[in-house]
Amino acid sequence: MIKVNLLPVKKKRKAKPVPVYLVVSVLLTVVICTVLAYLFYFYSSRLAERKVRVADNDKKIAELQEKIKAVNDYEKRNAMYKQRKEIIEQISKNKTLPVKALDEISKLLPAGVWLTSLAINGQNVNLSGIAFTNTDVVNYVNNCKNSGLLTDVYLQESVQTAISGYSAYTFRLTCKVKV
Q: Which stretches does DSSP call E strand in the chain?
């Protein structure tokens, strides 16, 4: 006897194979994600190292700027001390200047010439005096011109006047003293 089954029988279907392009794309995505994760970690660590290096360099720069400021302050103080030293040396040179000038002026006075006023302002010297004759005045001016200490000797005026009934010459003279 032959039996015929009229009831539908459910047959299991064969599973369709996963397409190759889907497998390849998933594997490729996984590989790419792994590579990107590695690169992210690699560059993050390098960035952290560089941030640490930048922070160290900033500290070094701050220290060096403090040292530069200290050096600049030292140079300013040094320049100020040099300026003060030069002023003190100039003062010490100039303190003997009036004494030397007065000694030189008195040595150069010929007989018959008297000084009535003497003013020394820095290197400038103004003299006023009286002489018996005009040749005495000229001799005194020539002596001053030949002096090693006096320069730029200039006779401003020589005027004949009567003093106590006698004829005399009053004169004014300017010159400079060498330092």
A: 113-121, 124-131, 150-163, 166-177
